[in-house]
Amino acid sequence: MFIAILRVIVRRLLAIVPVFAVVTVLVFGALRILPVDPAQMSLPPSATIEQVEAKREAMGLNRPIWTQYSMWAQAAITGDLGESAQYRTSTAAVVLDRLPATIELVICALIFAVCVGMTGGLLIFAVRGTALESVGLVVTSAVMALPDFLLALLFILLLGVLIPIFPVNGRLDPGMQVPSYTGFLLIDAVLTGDFRVIVSAFEHIALPVMALGLAFSPTIVRVLHASLINTYQQSYIQQARLRGLSDREILFGQALKNAIVPVVILVGTQFGGLFGGTLLVEMIFSFPGLGNLMVKAMQTADLSVIMAISLIYCATTLIFNSIADALAYLLNPRLRNG
Amino acid sequence: MNSVDRRLFMKLAAAAGGTLLVSPNFAFAGEVDNLSIAWTTDTASWDPNQRLSPDPQTILKMVFDQPIDMTSDLKLTPGLLTEWTLADDAMSMHVTLRDDVTFSDGSKLTTEDFRYTFFERVNQGEELDIAVGFGTVSDIEILSPTEAVMQFSKPSPIVAQWLSFSASYVVSKAYAEKVGPEKMKTSPMGTGPYVLTEYQRDSRIVLTRRDDYWGDLPSAKQITIEIIPDPTARLAALESGTVDIATELSIRDVKRLEQGGTLNAVTNPIARIIYVTIRADGVFADRNVRLAAHHAVDKDLLSKAFFGGDAVTINQPTIPGMPSFLPDFHFDYDVAKAQELLAASGFGPDNPVTLDFATTNGQFPGDYDIARAVVTMWEKVGIKANLTVITESQWYELNASGKLPPASLFVWENGTGDPELFAGNMFDADLPFATYRTDEVTAMIKPLLKEPDYDTRIKGYEEFNQYLIEEGAMIPLLQAIQTIGYRNGIEIKPWANGLIRPEAITIS
Predict the structure, then answer these.
(1) What CATH number has the domain bearing residue B314?
(2) How many independent structural domains does chain B possess?
(3) pTM over cut 0.90
(4) pLDDT band at residue B4, thresholds of 50, 70 and 90?
(5) Cys staple from B242: which of B11, B88, B142, B237, with CB 3.0 to 4.6 Å?
(6) Which of residues 290-319 of A touch B (CB under 8 A)?
(7) Which residue intervals define the domain Solute-binding protein family in the entry (chain B) (predicted)?
(8) What's the domain range around B68?
C-alpha cells in the first residue's frame, strides 16, 4: 500500500510541473499587462526619462514578452527571482525571509480549524434531529458569513482590548529574542527551553491563528456533518447496529473512517485559500509573513515580489492538493482498489 | 535640617523598591525605560540615503543625524553642522562640522564621512534617492576634519534645506566601505541618539539609547516601534496599553480620544498638501474650464467631511507660514462663477464637459472619498468626471508617457520649509512630477531654480504661486494633518514635517 501511495504522490507531483509552468506564464503575462513600469519603480523619483529608458533596456523590458519570460524563467530556475523594486535587494531573500512565519501561521490555523471543525461537526451530528442541531447549523452559518479579516478585528477588540488576554501585534514580547535554529519561530522558541519565550510566542500567534482558523472551520463542520449523515444511511452502519455495537463504536470505529474522506479532500483543496487568507490577517496583526509582504508589494507595484509570492501560493495549493489525494487514497480502500 | 536615620532610610528604600516592583518602567523623573510607538510602515531599507519617502524618516532619524536640523516649524537649525555659508552665486557652500560627534561604533565623525555621503556615494552609481538633492554636487573639498567646501555644477540655492530633508543622513565612510551596499540596507550604524538592537521586518523595531550621544538625551532609554499598518489595530494597540503612542488614527477616533479619559490625541497640520493636478492640454487647454473646476470645489466641506474640520483649506501650492505663502491671496468657492465660466466656453449642467479624473485609493487617508466628493461638486456646475483608481507608481508611469488623465488627485510632501519643493518641483517640466507644462511656466520657473538671492527667490515664488492659481494650473485643496494618540502622562510636541522626535516627547 505504501508503494501505491508513493506512486500516487509522485504521479501528482509530476502533474504539478506543467500546471505550475502554465501558471508562471499566466502570472508573468498578467503582471506585464499592468500599466506599471518596473524600471521607473527601481529608480529614484528624480530619474530622467533617459535614465528610465536605460534601466528598461538593462532589465530587458523593451524585448518581446516571451523573451522576457524566457529570461525570467532561466534566472528563476537558478534561484534568481530578480530584484525587489521596493527593497532594492534580492527578491528571493526578501520572500524566503518571510516564508517561515506564514507557514507557521497557516499550519497552526489549519490545526485549529480542523480541531474546531471536527469537534463542531461531531457535536452537531450527535444532537441530530433535535432543536440543538438547528441552532448549531445557524451558528455555523453565522461564523461562515464572517470573513477572516473581520474576525481578526473582532478578536482584537474582544480579546485584545476589552478583555486583554492576548497581544494584538508582533510575534514576541519586546526585548525577547530567539536564536534562529530552524527559521520557524515557534520551533525555535521551544528549542530555547525558556518557558516565558515559549508562552510569549504562542500568545502572539494565538489571535491570528484563531481568526484564520475560525473562518475556515465552519466549512469543515458542514462537510463532516453532511458526510456523517450520508454515511449513517449506508447498510454497513445498519449491520453494525444489528451486531450490537454501541453508538460510540459505530461512530468512531465504523462511520468516521469513511465520513472523514471528504473532509480530508476539503482541507487539502482549501489549504491554498487559507494561505491566501493570510493577506489581510497578517496585515491587521502586523505579522511579518508573506501576506503582509504581498499587500505591501501590491501597494508599491513591486512586481518581482508579487510574482514570487503568487508562485508560492500556487505551488502550495498544488502540493497540498496532491497530499490530500494521497491521504484520501490511504483512507478510502475503494480508491485503492479502483 | 532633618537627619536621615537608619529606620527612615530603610523606609525610603522599601518605598523605592515597591515603586519599582509596581511600575517596572519607572526610572528617573522624566525618563522611561521603554516607550512604544505604533507606526504605519517599516523602512524599506536601513540605508538612510536610499529613500526619500516621508514615512520611514522618523525611524531613520533616531539612528542617524542630519547635517542641518529643523525646528518644529521647519526653520533651519544646527545639526551635525555648526555653520554653513552659501556663496553669493550659490555655486559653493562652506560648512563646519561639530568636533564631538561619534558614530555608534565609537569612530569619530569627520568631513571624510560628509564628503562620502553627499558626493562619493552619489557618484558611485548606487541607486540612492539622495541624488535628487545632491546630484549637482561636483566635489566636496576637505579643508580639515571639521571644515569642507561643497562645490556645485550649477547654482544650488536650497542645498542647506536639502541637508535637512529626507534621506540626508551622514553615514560612516569606513563602515560603508567595510560592509558594502547590501549590508548597509540591513545593518544601520549612525551618529543618532539610538542604535538598532532588535529588528523583525514589518513587525517590530527596538532602538536603545546611546548614552554617549553628542546631543540632548531623549527621555526614553529604549524605543519600541510596532509596525501596525491597519488603523483599527493601531488604535487597539493603544487602547490595550500595548503601545504608548499611535499615529495616523482615524479622525473619528481622534475626536473620541480628545474628549479625555486615559488617552489623549492631537491633530498636527503637516507640510503636505492634497491637490488636484491639471494638464495644460485636452479639455483643460481652456482656461475657463480650469478655473471653473477650481471655483466649483467647496474645500471647507471637504475638510469638515473627511478631517472633522481640522484640515486647513489652501488656495496656493504651499501651506500657511511657509516662505512664499501669500496670506492675503484668496480664491473663492463660487458655484455661480464656475457656471458662468463654463457657460462662456459653451458648457453647463445640461451640456457638461467630460474628462477623466484619476485618484489613488488608500495612498493617503480619505483619498478616494475626497476624489468622489470633488466629482459630485464638479457635476453640479457642468463638469462630468469619470473617476478611475490608479496606484502612485501608475501615476508616474502615466505622466511619463503623457497618458495621465486631465485631472488627478495627488499628495505632495515638502519637509524642507522652502517653496522650491512645492511649486518649484511640481511644475519643473524636467522632473517627473510636472503635469501642467507650458512654455510660460518654464520661463518663470527656470530662473527661480538658480536664483541665489533668497529674498528675490521667495518674491519670485510668491508671484509664481499666484500665477499658477490665476491660470488654473492646479487645484489646491487641503493641508494634510497627522493624527497622534497617546496615553496620559506623555506630552508630544509635533513637528510640521510629520516626524515624531524622541526629544520632543516628555514624560511626567
Answers:
(1) 3.10.105.10
(2) 2
(3) no
(4) very low
(5) B237
(6) 292-293, 295-296, 299-301
(7) 75-427
(8) 32-185
